From TrEMBL:
Lineage, top ranks: Bacteria, Pseudomonadati, Bacteroidota, Sphingobacteriia, Sphingobacteriales
Lineage top rank: taxon: Bacteria
Protein name as catalogued: Endonuclease V
The species this protein was found in: Pedobacter gandavensis
Keyword terms: Endonuclease, Hydrolase, Nuclease
Molecular function GO labels: endonuclease activity
InterPro entries per record: Endonuclease-V
């Protein structure tokens, strides 16, 4: 089973949405779970992981991680070409480096070219920025590129992203 995780914030709460799927070519999730997290830390520029990582880990406390073969996050593994850790690297470390992580971000992070691959899906002129840890970057990029959906954002990722924006 693979898991897509996204987080949205409102005040000092976070809504963590997890979308579970089996096949890269699926057009719908096997299941979706939601966790509301209270007392979320404030955002600090350059240290986003300090806000998001605790929320994701609280969500994952309720998941049988032995069933998860890979995680997809909205974010980056590394923030720059010097391998400054981003959310994905910290999450990978928190999971004892046992679950590969793919970052699929919608916008570029400054000075980050070596550990990111741009993919263009559908007819979009804007790329997705793919990064990876525990799996080779070219393989991760190909997997995201081949996911179901004809738009920039694969359908399964879009479903999770949309749910984070729904009223809670």
């Amino acid at each position: 089973m693979k898991l897509i995780i996204d987080v949205a914030y409102e005040g000092n709460q976070a809504k963590v949405v997890g979308g579970f799927f089996e096949n890269w070519f699926d057009d719908s999730l096997v299941k979706q779970s939601i966790k509301i997290v209270d007392n979320v830390q404030d955002y600090v520029s350059g240290e986003f992981y300090k806000r998001e990582l605790p929320c994701i880990l609280e969500f994952l406390d309720e998941v049988n991680l032995k069933e998860i073969e890979l995680l997809i996050i909205d974010g980056f593994i590394y923030l720059d070409d010097e391998r400054k850790k981003g959310l994905g690297a910290y999450l990978y470390d928190s999971l004892a480096e046992k679950i590969p992580i793919i970052g699929a971000a919608k916008s570029r992070f400054y000075n980050n070219t070596k550990y990111v691959q741009e993919i263009f899906r559908g007819e979009s002129k804007k790329p997705l920025y793919i990064s990876a840890i525990g799996i080779e970057l070219p393989e991760a990029s190909l997997l995201i590129d081949k996911m179901f959906g004809k738009f920039r954002l694969p359908s399964l990722i879009k479903q999770v992203d949309t749910e984070t924006k729904n009223k809670w």
